[in-house]
Amino acid sequence: MINKIKGIHLYAFGFLRKMYDWVLSWAHKKHSSAALFVLAFAESSFFPVPPDVLQIALSVSKPKKSFFYAFISSIGSILGGILGYFIGWKLWIVLKGFFFSYIPGFTPHIFEVIKSKYELYNFWVVFTAGFTPIPYKIITISAGLFGVSFGMFFIASAVSRSARFFLVATLLYFFGPKMKEFIDKYFNLLTILFFILFIGGFLVIKYLI
Q: Which domain holds residue 42?
């Protein structure tokens, strides 16, 4: 039994290691910036993988372009957030079955919790989700569904998403090579931390926002 668990553990990290190396390889491909834009756009409305993964991989390989990649992530994420808002505003009655069945984190209970938080905090719900590991797509769609002011939503999204990606860019611009060494050395530990933050994001929505 122990050997079986150990085997699953090694397989999981081996798979994630290959994924990390594959993402890093985009730094040397012609359409890497376009891939980053698409990932940032999709993550704000339906895709589960955050754009930070690719942004970091690209910036680690090319630290001098860190702020350019942050700009790409920001624009893609903001526009994707607008799509998410539109899905909640106009398409939710058609698509809610798909989201509740196939997209992690989407449950009727979570939406009821978010609705009550919008009534109290409004701007800060969107801002907090945009800057932290809280699943942003849940906030963009619920904002449209519950009639949050689009102007307020847009400003909160633009400020929080840009701040998040440019903070990452600043760290990578000054410490890119050292951070690559750190990621390579502590990849397994960082993977565990990533999943803890990912799960923690859902818990924040449920209990703290």
A: 2-207
Instruction: Record the pTM.
Output: 0.77
pLDDT in tens, 117-158: 887 888 888 998 888 777 889 999 999 999 999 999 999 999
Q: What is the 3-state secondary structure (H, E, C) of the chain?
A: CHHHHHHHHHHHHHHHHHHHHHHHHHHHCCCHHHHHHHHHHHHCCCCCCCCHHHHHHHHHHCHHHHHHHHHHHHHHHHHHHHHHHHHHHHHHHHHHHHHHHHCCCCCHHHHHHHHHHHHHCCHHHHHHHHHCCCCHHHHHHHHHHCCCCHHHHHHHHHHHHHHHHHHHHHHHHHHHHHHHHHHHHCHHHHHHHHHHHHHHHHHHHHHCC
Number of domains present in the structure of the chain = 1
